[in-house]
Every structure is written in C-alpha cells, then in structure tokens.
Amino acid sequence: MVKKKVTKKKIVKRKVVKKKAVKKKPVNKNISRTVKKKVRKVTKKVKNKVTKKAEKTKAQIKKYEAKAKAELKKAKARFLKEEAKAKQFIKKNPEKAVAIAATLGAAIGTVAGALARKKRKR
Q1: Given 3-state DSSP classes, what are the helix, strand and coil percentages for the chain, each rounded to the nearest 5?
Q2: What radius of gyration do the chain's Cα atoms show?
Q3: At a CB cut-off of 8 Å and minimum separation 6, what does 119 contact?
Q4: Is the pTM of this model over 0.70?
C-alpha cells in the first residue's frame, strides 16, 4: 500500500494547471490614431527621400546623355574626315582602290565559303 501512495503523489505533481483565458482588450481609438499619424510621417519621409534620389539620378542621366552626345558628334566628325580621305585616295589612285577592293572582296568571300562548308558538314 505504500507504493500506491507514492504513485498517487507523483500523479498529483504532474497535473497541469490550466491558465485562465486572457480577454483581449479592444484597440483603443487613440492608439490607432497615433499609429496612423506615425505611419503618415514615415511615408512622407520615405517619399521625400525617394524623390530626392530620383532627382539626383535624373541629373546624372542628363549629364551622361550630354557626354554621350558630345562623343557621338566627335565620332561623326572623325568618320566624315576619314570618308573624305578615302574619296580623295580613290580619285587619285583608282587602280589601287580597285585592287584593294578586289582583295578585300576575295578575303571576305573565302571566309564566308569556309564557314558555309563547316555548316554543311555538321
């Protein structure tokens, strides 16, 4: 009988005590208003920061666009100079110009033919 008492004590010790259910309080209207105000302030700050960054990037884009236009202008001028030189060379040396053109045409034709053969073998 002593053993039974010991086992009963152990069982009593193991019983789980149920917690009382905590009732949730309704959200106070003042709290929700303050939260809304804080959210508005934060969104305004974020919006301001984003617009500032956007303005900076727009300025940078305009700066790089101007640089690109200047480089394009330089490249066009250089191309026109080289074109004028080529035209003068052709007028002064028509035989050499024809020989150079024929050589380039043959080289391009040889390369194209070699590539076409490789494609057929596959």
Answers
A1: 85, 0, 15
A2: 43
A3: none
A4: no
Token reading at 70: 């200047």
The whole-number pLDDT of residue 24 equals 62
CA distances from 10 to 1, 3, 6, 15, 58 (A): 15, 11, 6, 9, 76
**Of the candidates 104, 85, 83, the residue with the CA atom closest to the CA atom of residue 93:** 85
Which residues of the chain register pLDDT less than 70?
Answer: 1-30, 121-122
In this structure, the dihedral spanned by the alpha carbons of residues 44, 46, 49 and 50, taken in order and rounded to 10 degrees, is: -110
pLDDT of residue 3: 47
Per-residue pLDDT tens digits for 8-20: 444 444 555 555 6
Asked if 97 contacts 90 with a C-beta cutoff of 8 angstroms, the reply is: yes
CA gap 41, 37 in Å, rounded? 6
For residue 90, give every residue at least 6 positions away whose Cβ sits within 8 Å of its Cβ, in sequence order, or none: 97
